[in-house]
From TrEMBL:
This is Sugar transferase. The keyword Transmembrane helix applies. Signal peptide: none annotated. GO terms for cellular component: membrane. Its main location: membrane. Belongs to the bacterial sugar transferase family. The keyword Ribonucleoprotein does not apply. It comes from the Bacteria. It holds the Pfam family CoA_binding_3.
């Protein structure tokens, strides 16, 4: 049950009127206490969904292992020793596997939908269980068939992770519609809270719905709230009381001088009876979790950040993958490229290929190849189109660019014009995945942060390609590229390539 209450900055708990205009927000009725039934209900829904798909995935995997162990053409009765024993083992293994996934915390509401951590817990539970099975079989001298394990474990792990991925997609779609959200209170200094609020809005799949802000220090002279549509409802000292009044599900603490270990510890104690999550944002931006290691010093958690690696064995593997994949793709696409080239030349005057100087690794220029998608006088006409420029920052972008040919518009929509860049990959100028290859005039306007994009080879695709393409602002484009540069991994490249295939088939932001 909720009621409408007038809330003004700093007067919710202080008991005095405010000279600022109050705002209307829906909060839990104090007479009813924090409404946790809603929270527990949607969390239970997520847990039950996950339990159901775990049971199905594990059962299919163990059944596959059983039928591989016993050829389907062989008539084996379940009552016979070899068939009956493995049938019993299969039933026990399914139950144990499902229990192990729960004991490992992979179905905890705190990790569901959080990608890497959820996958790590699933893998840890699966390998741990089969390791335990191997030890038990060794101790009791039972020869468990290797074919049984060789099928059940990889198939089960794959099916569980795939099913969890489908659930994450569904969860994110539901959260984008306002379902399964945590009512969240942000606590901290104005600037960090503002930045954190923007990031939470950019990532609706995380499930944080900010309903209020508690600012550190005096708030009598504070103007507008640092988070749009989330009023200032108190100070940091009042955070626990506000959390109880609003019935929040999570309290997120951003950086602030007042957020000392003693204050955060007291806040955690105060939130215990409310069953509200305490989340502490360390103030590190765009650092992936594999680069962070949590340790303790005299009971104080310390976050270590490993430096990004721009060389090493993984980059050798990356280059080898670039050469092999680009060569194979060029061989497959040679025929379609010749057809497209003929269409380009027949539909507009000029060469089929467009050559342009771009800036690559460590600022070295190279010639980039594309299928020509504009008229031949496009560069000369650019100076007359500045009034139509829609590109923030150093980029020049026009949604309905008159210089683009009809065929070029189609090729751009499905990224067909970029296929010749595979030759740049084969030559070593570019990589399949990397930051966007910039023009020389763009690099001249780079600041120190943007120049870090040049620490790795530019890519045919990248986070900018799957994250919005031309719809991205300059700031978002730089942010995504810097995140890639500093948090690169081979598996991350694989994920981007898979997302690129989807972005090409269902294009958005390409013009």
């Amino acid at each position: 049950m909720t009621i409408e209450r007038d809330v003004a900055a700093a007067d919710l708990l202080a008991g005095h009127p405010s000279d600022r205009q109050p705002r209307r927000v829906a909060v839990a009725d104090p007479a009813q206490g924090p409404d946790k039934r809603r929270t527990l209900r949607w969390q239970d829904i997520l847990v039950r969904r996950t339990l159901a798909v775990d049971v199905v995935a594990v059962t299919v995997a163990v059944a596959a292992g059983y039928f591989v162990r016993f050829d389907t053409h062989t008539d084996v009765s379940l009552l016979e020793p070899r068939g009956g024993m493995y049938a019993l083992i299969s039933v026990v293994l399914v139950e144990a596997w499902v229990i192990a996934l729960g004991v490992a915390g992979s179905r905890s509401p705190q990790v569901l939908g959080h990608g890497r951590e959820e996958a790590v817990r699933v893998a840890r539970a699966s390998f741990g269980l089969f390791g335990l099975v191997a030890v038990v079989c060794y101790l009791i001298k039972f020869d468990l068939a290797r074919s049984y394990v060789a099928v059940a474990l990889p198939v089960g792990l794959t099916l569980v992770l795939f099913a969890r991925w489908l659930l994450v997609i569904r969860l994110h779609r539901e959260r984008s519609r306002g379902l399964h959200l945590r009512r969240t209170l942000l606590v901290g200094a104005w600037g960090p809270v503002h930045d954190l609020g923007l990031r939470l809005k950019r990532e609706p799949g995380a499930g944080f719905d900010v309903v209020g802000v508690c600012l550190a220090g005096p708030i009598g002279d504070v103007g507008s709230s640092p988070v749009a549509d989330a009023p200032i409802v108190g100070t940091m000292e009042q955070a626990a009381a506000v959390a109880e009044s609003f019935g929040v599900d999570a309290v997120v603490v951003a950086a602030a001088n007042e957020a000392t270990p003693k204050v955060i510890k007291q806040l955690a104690w105060d939130l215990e009876p409310l069953r509200a999550e305490l989340v502490v944002a360390p103030g590190l931006a765009d650092v992936s979790s594999p680069r962070m290691v949590v340790t303790t010093v005299d009971g104080l958690p310390v976050l270590k950040v490993t430096p990004p690696g721009y060389t090493g064995v993984q980059h050798v593997v990356k280059r080898a993958a670039d050469v092999v994949l680009s060569a194979v793709m060029l061989a497959i696409l040679l025929g379609p490229l010749l057809v497209l080239g003929c269409l380009v030349r027949s539909t507009s005057s000029g060469p089929a290929l467009y050559k342009q100087r771009r800036v690559g690794l460590n600022g070295r220029p190279f010639t980039l190849y594309k299928l020509r998608s504009m008229y031949v006088d496009a560069d000369e006409r650019r100076q007359h189109l500045h009034a139509l420029d829609q590109g923030a920052g150093v980029l020049f972008k026009i949604r309905n660019d008159p210089r683009v040919t009809p065929l070029g518009r189609l090729m751009r929509r499905y990224s067909l014009d970029e296929f010749p860049q595979l030759w740049n990959v084969l030559r070593g100028d570019m990589s399949l995945v990397g930051p966007r290859p910039p023009l020389e005039r763009e690099v001249e306007r780079y600041d120190a942060a943007a120049r870090r994009r040049l620490l790795v080879k530019p890519g045919v695709t990248g986070l900018w390609q799957v994250g919005g393409r031309s719809d991205l602002s300059w700031e978002d484009s730089v942010r995504l590229d810097l995140y890639y540069v500093e948090n690169w991994s081979f598996l991350g490249d694989v994920a981007i390539l898979l997302r690129t295939a989807r972005a090409v088939m269902f294009p958005s932001g390409a013009y």
